[in-house]
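Long-time lurker, first post. I've been practising inverse folding by hand and with some scripts of my own, and I keep getting stuck on stretches where the structure tokens seem ambiguous. Below is the full token string for one chain I'm working on. Before anyone asks, I'm not after the true native sequence, just a reasonable design that respects the backbone. If someone could post their per-position residues I'd love to compare against what I wrote down in my notebook.
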């Protein structure tokens, strides 16, 4: 006759085996259901990345077999004045759009977080630019900026102010595109900041008010520190999106006038799909990747030091 502790121990061991069997069977089915997504990710993400890296060391015009050239594409990039101009324009666009977007979005989030009338309507309107087609946005703003019959110059004429060339002026074109970029991305950043504000506990503000803290001190010592993870996320994603800007430039200016608005992705497109320099375009793409990756690491390090 088995002792009671031995029976209990065997029962527990049997229960563990049955649980492990059930878990392993569930894991197998989970992998089965994940398989289509994994195949698509492998075919349309991983393979293009690897092929692009391979092509960056080759000269390939699609019509003939790739020819190995080593680091020649990367060395050529360092002397390509047009590509360096695109890097400069992209960096300038990012430095202008990202901080401006974050400041405006934070202010709008603070306003929309309060119990105002029609708050749901204003939140929806704020988010609309994000769900609007980039092509539609670019075409609409092209009409607004049109020197002859655009809305802006019409207002300037009524006000007696000299009209401007806007997108046709090399000195103003990039600034005009930056305005469009801020307008399009501020809604997304507002929603993210709004979600972060709603996660801040109310008792922190109540305790601060009891101690005599005003709005500014509450904002500085409670809101901003509690929004640090949200701010970091918005900053990194905004930088990545800014360095990948293409549709606004392609539709509004085609990189002109005088290459004043050409950006890195625009140069990748031109070299890859117009000039059929696939190897050279792949090298540009990997330089863009390294820049974005480096900026993301730098932002993470700065954020960790101030956490």
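-- Answer (accepted) --
I ran through it position by position. Result:
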């Amino acid at each position: 006759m088995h002792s009671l502790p031995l029976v209990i121990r065997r029962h527990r061991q049997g229960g563990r085996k049955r649980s492990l069997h059930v878990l392993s069977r569930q894991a197998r089915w989970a992998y089965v259901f994940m398989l289509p997504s994994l195949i698509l990710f492998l075919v349309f993400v991983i393979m293009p990345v690897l092929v692009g890296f391979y092509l960056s060391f080759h000269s390939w015009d699609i019509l003939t077999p790739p020819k190995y050239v080593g680091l020649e594409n990367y060395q050529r990039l360092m002397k390509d004045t047009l590509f360096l101009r695109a890097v400069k324009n992209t960096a300038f666009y990012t430095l202008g759009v990202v901080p401006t977007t974050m400041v405006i979005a934070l202010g709008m989030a603070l306003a929309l977080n309060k119990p105002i009338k029609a708050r749901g309507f204003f939140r929806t309107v704020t988010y609309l630019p994000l769900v609007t087609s980039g092509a539609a946005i670019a075409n609409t703003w092209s009409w607004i900026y049109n020197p002859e019959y655009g809305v802006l110059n019409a207002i300037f004429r009524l006000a007696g102010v000299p009209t401007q060339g806007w997108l046709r002026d090399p000195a103003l074109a990039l600034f005009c595109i930056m305005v469009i970029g801020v307008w399009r991305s501020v809604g997304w950043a507002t929603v993210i900041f709004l979600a972060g504000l709603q996660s801040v506990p109310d008792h922190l503000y109540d305790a601060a008010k009891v101690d005599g803290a005003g709005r500014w001190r509450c904002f500085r010592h409670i809101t901003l520190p509690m929004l640090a993870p949200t701010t970091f996320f918005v900053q990194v994603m905004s930088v990545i999106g800014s360095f990948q800007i293409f549709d606004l430039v392609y539709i509004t200016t085609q990189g002109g006038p005088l290459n004043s608005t050409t950006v890195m992705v625009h140069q990748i497109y031109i070299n890859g799909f117009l000039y059929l320099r696939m190897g050279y375009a792949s090298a540009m793409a990997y330089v863009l990747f390294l820049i974005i990756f480096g900026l993301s690491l730098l932002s993470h390090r700065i954020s960790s030091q101030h956490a």
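A couple of notes from the structure itself: The CA atoms of residues 103 and 268 lie 31 Å apart. The longest strand covers residues 58-59. Happy to go over any region you disagree with.
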